[in-house]
Amino acid sequence: MVKIKNIVVLTGAGISAESGIRTFRDTGGLWEEHSIEKVATPEAYAADPELVLGFYNARRAQLSTVEPNPAHHALGRLEKGLLDGGGYLTLVTQNVDDLHERGGADNVIHMHGELLSQWCRACDSKFKSRDDFTTSSVCPKCDHIGRVRPDIVWFGEMPYSMGAIETAVNNCDLFVSIGTSGAVYPAAGFVQLARGMRKQTLEINLEPSEGSSFFHDSRLGKAGELVPIWVDEILEALT
Ligand code: BV8
Fold it and tell me: Mind listing the pLDDT tens digit for each residue in 92-102?
């Protein structure tokens, strides 16, 4: 049997649900209260920037009230354990929170951007900030007023690091999807990419995702309970 040393993990909102961050499409999810077209597209930002900035200000402010859960900590442990064993974890998240980093993961690909990062459209620089932003906010790099937008990949925009993600899938022994509904592309298509490259695939989710039938294996339940168990299995098999 091939030893599993290189792993790509894709996470979605479900992994942060037990930390108290709302998911998007579940009952009570964010998209029940906010329309995607009004808050998560470049057109929405052009039409009503204050509304969009307010939506992201509130979610950014929430970050200081939540903590990583056992699933985030387990992936931090997996990153270190694989490195010690001569392998590598590529942790790709669709989440814009910082809970993976606070759970101990050092190399996280935020393919849909980050709440704590801002992007000045005047000078094209990106900078970290916990502040609220308005249409009067000033870029700390170029002093332009009103050109700072959330560093978030909205619908219709190209997700980040697609080349690096494809390379990582190509080089992995196992692709694992955790806490995502499989409703948003291109992330939802990674499992098919992995299958096309003849990789093993595993889904860990509360319920079968939209792409569930593409996975070799599926573990259903809470990420906070299942992910630490799965990580222990992987690290034990490495020794
Ligand atoms: C692009 C902003 C071109 C950040 C987000 C028609 C068909 C196919 C595709 C399209 C189409 N029309 C348009 C598209 C493209 C579009 C798309 O996919 N639309 C869908 C809706 C049809 N995609 C795009 O526009 C993307 N860009 O395609 O560019 C391109 C790209 C590559 C190559 C060539 C061309 C840009 C997408 C970025 C969207 N940005 N939001 C923000 O505000 O947060 S999407 C939003 O959805 C979040 O980022 C989120 O991460 C993402 C995915 O959602 P999930 O994480 O899966 O969350 P969800 O609530 O859905 O599910 C939670 C799951 O967790 C559930 O299954 C639940 O059971 C489970 N769960 C709950 N609790 C737990 C749990 N599991 C375990 N434990 C628990 N405790």
Answer: 999 999 999 99
pTM above 0.70, yes or no: yes
Distance 112 CA to ligand 1 centre (A): 9
Q: Whose CA is nearest to atom 58 of ligand 1?
A: 13
For the chain, list the domains and their CATH numbers: 6-20+69-112+159-238 (3.40.50.1220), 22-65+114-152 (3.30.1600.10)
pLDDT tens across 152-169, in order?
999 999 999 999 999 999
Nearest Cα residue to atom 9 of ligand 1: 185
Residue-wise pLDDT for 97-134, tens only, equals 999 999 999 999 999 999 999 999 999 999 999 999 99
Q: What does the mean pLDDT of the chain come to?
A: 97
CA of 184 to the centre of ligand 1 (A): 3
For the chain, give the secondary structure using H, E and C: CCCCCEEEEEECCHHHHCCCCCCCCCCCCHHHHCCHHHHCCHHHHHHCHHHHHHHHHHHHHHHHHCCCCHHHHHHHHHHHHHHHCCCEEEEEECCCCCHHHHCCCCCEEECCEEEEEEEECCCCCEEECCCCCCCCCECCCCCCECCEEEEECCCCCCCCCHHHHHHHHHHCCEEEEECCCCCCCCHHHHHHHHHHCCCEEEEEECCCCCCHHHCCEEEECCHHHHHHHHHHHHHHHHC
**Does residue 110 carry a catalytic annotation?**
no
Site to substitute for ligand 1 among 16, 18, 24, most atoms within 8 A of C-beta: 24
